[in-house]
Amino acid sequence: MKSITLTALLIFYSALLYSQKNMDDVVYLKNGSRIQGVIQFIIPDSIVQIKQSGGTLWVFKMDEVSIIDKEEKINLRKTLHENMGYQFGLNAGFLAGSDNNRNKAPFGVEMIHAYKFTTNIAIGLGAGVEFFEATQVPLYLDLRYYFNQKYYATYLFVQGGGMVPIDADNIEIDGYGFKGKIGYMVNPGIGFLFPLNERSAISVGLSYRFHELKYSGINNIKTDYLRVEKMNRFNFRLGFILY
Length: 243
What we know:
The chain is built from 2 helices and 15 strands. With 243 residues, it is mostly beta strands. It folds into 2 domains: 73 residues, SH3 type barrels, CATH 2.30.30; 164 residues, Porin (Beta Barrel). An 8-stranded antiparallel β-barrel has the order 6-7-8-9-10-13-14-15.
C-alpha cells in the first residue's frame, strides 16, 4: 500500500513539474496589452519585471497592471507552421553580379501581400523599387512552398512579372536620351523564416534573378534604337513577415 501511495505521489509530482515547465507568466495591462514570459521579480505595490522568450525585459508599475496569471507557453514552431491566412512581408537588399549596368549592386525594397492557403502553400502579389539607370518597379506574382518547419521554416519560391520604369520619359544612358519600357522578371530562390513571436518572423532570402531592362531612343546616327539589358544576378533580401 505504501509503495502504491509513493508511486502515485511521484507521478503527481512529475506531472506538476511538467505542467509548470510548460507554463509562462502573463502580465495583463490595463491598456489591453499582454506580455508573456517569465517574471523576474515583483516588488509589491511598486513594479513587476518580466522577461520574454526572446530576451526582452519589461518593467511595469503595479498600477499599470490589471492581472498576473499563468498560461501555456507559446510554441513558436507550432504557430509558424500552423498560421494560415493573410501575410505581409517587407524586405530590403541588393542584386549582386557582373553586367553592363553602371549600378554594380543596386539596392531595392519590396513588399508582398500574400495568403497562406495550407500549412505549405502561399500565393501573393509583390511590388518594390530598385535603382538602375532608370528607377524600376518590379510587379510580380509570388508562389511559395514551405517545408522543414522546425523552429525555423524553409521555403522555396518563384516570382514572375515585369520591370516597370517609373522615370520612363527622361533616361540618359551613355549621353543619349531614352524612354523606358516594361521588361520581364523571373526570380526563383530559397528563403528562411525565424520566428520572433507568434505573429511575426525574420525573413532571409537568396535567389537568382533573371530579368531585362528595355529602353528605346535615337542613336548617334539618328535612327530608332532599342536597348535591352539582360541581367542574371544573385538577389539577397532581409526583412520581416507578419502573419
